[in-house]
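Lab meeting notes turned into a lecture example. A postdoc, R.K., suggested we walk through two folding results consecutively so the class can see how the record format repeats. The first protein's sequence and structure tokens come next.
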Amino acid sequence: MVEFINLLLVLIPYASSVPLSLYIGSVLENIKNYHYYNKKVIKKKKNDDIDIKKEENIKNEKVNEEDKLNTLNTNESIPSDSLKNSHNFKFDINNDKENENKHNYKILKSNKDCLSFKNVNLSQPSKYYIYYTRFCLYFIILINVVIITKCVIPELLEIFTLNFWIPSKLSLKNSLVGFVVSVIFGHPWLDNPYLQMYTLNRYLRNQNDYNNRSCCFKKKFKYCKSSKKDVIEEDYNTKMNNDLPPRKSSLSLSYKKAYLVWNPALHFNSKVNAFIIDISRLICSCVLIPVMEELVFRYIFYRFIIGGFNYKLVSFSTWRWTAAILSNIVITHVFYIRCYEKSEEWITGLINGYLCTYSMVKQGRWNASVNTHCLTNLFIGLYVLITKKYKYWS
């Protein structure tokens, strides 16, 4: 019974990390929009006061001109410049109101609205929501790892020691093989399957085309190059996210299952902010993600298939083909194929899973699989930062 409860204490936080990160990201996005709305209301009041004064001046000028025309007893009505200006002024006001309605976020008028997930536009989110959810997920994983190691599985406290992170030659070789496989077939990411499933960003961007391959959309399980014909289908200027700054990059409409190129250089004008985001993601992908995934799929699930609820009694050097196959097929099928509908990238997930399992069984230590996973992500991250091919981080 105790083992069953401990197992639930590990799996429930892991399964709830994605929806919880989505909710926290929506709250942060709502707070940002709420403050923006308040500032906009203050500016609008000031502008309205100025507009009222202008309208009064225009009316006074109009009355004065009508008096002059009446005194001259003219039969022809000649429109004055002030009347033209008043017409243009009203037209500008209407244009401003129309532009206000084009914002793709919902207006939040109270602090309670910030706690609602319904206020987030899932069909066309802003860049802030995407990055909020991603880094909220990293933060939640960090909290889960700390709590699990100290309260549920105390023997995992070794992950906070330096010896745990020293890789062996076998882990280094397997990680190099996994890196080559990832470059050939593509590298799958499991940050937020919900984001990919519901296509939160419908517009893809690429910069300098990255060899015409880094920015692509999915259609019938094949990678397709972005073309200008797709842009002509609709007036994308009316639907494009207002938060994204204009760039000299090609735009293309995506299909149902779209990939977002996580290139912060396209989202932020500051190179420092883009660099900080890249480095933080590199660190999180090399430390947090390997620990959490290997904890669930290698430390628990692989040995659970062999020993059931007494999985802690199963040695890490125990090899079972059924456990190796099932533990990897569950990951590749449920996540990569069902959620992401990847084409060749499920091959990468399958091979890297076997490499991590082989490292653990061969050396008889759980940290061997973590080191293999960590080095593979490190090589991929450095490859992305050097070549700027962000499709491997998509």
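The second example is placed directly after the first for contrast:
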Amino acid sequence: MLLARPPEPHDADLQDFLVWHVLRSTSRARPLSPGGHDGGVAVGDDDDGGTGGRRNPGPSAAARNRAALLAAARRLFDEVGADVPLSRLAAEAGVGQAVLYRVFPDRASAVWEVFGEDLTALEELAAAADLPVLLGEVTRSAVRSTGFLQVVAGHLDDTRLLDAGRRFAVALARCREGTAPARRPARDLTAADLGLAVQMVAGALVTTAREQRLEVARRAWDLLGVPVDLGRPAG
């Protein structure tokens, strides 16, 4: 059972961001609830974060804890949604409350860390792969994480979102320029056109059942005339 979250007037209203610009068309999703220290769990000075009294378990343990929290945040934001208590995130990751709040002081920082990791991976892929491969990974990410994308929808004015959108647009443009003509769309689509196409495909996935998302994405890209590497269709 999820723990109830008590009112917390000391928390600032969160201005979270939408995961890149692909879901500008899905602003009907729920906004994030304000407040960071949710889940009804008080974090005291005597909380050692599950380290048995050892305040500083070392960099290797800290890295493992952070990785576990990132994985739990990604999974629970997608499966449960915006209101999942951070205490549940800690339990899912197998860490104590002090560890949780050292890594993620509030809900916004958890969402931003997950997104930042994804965006960096896409930038690295864009530098090494061509356009169909990049768009394929963007699409698979949207297929896997539609729930997570909806968690942060509706915060279109956040400066972090705007910066992320610029970073993704730059990566997309560079990848397009480095793609062989035979692997580009038949029409001469600009990077801005491709960004809009990503929005359109991602928007279609929001209202599609999980088991049908990949096929819907494949059909959408075919209709747009954009080659995307999504693997062979089932059957």
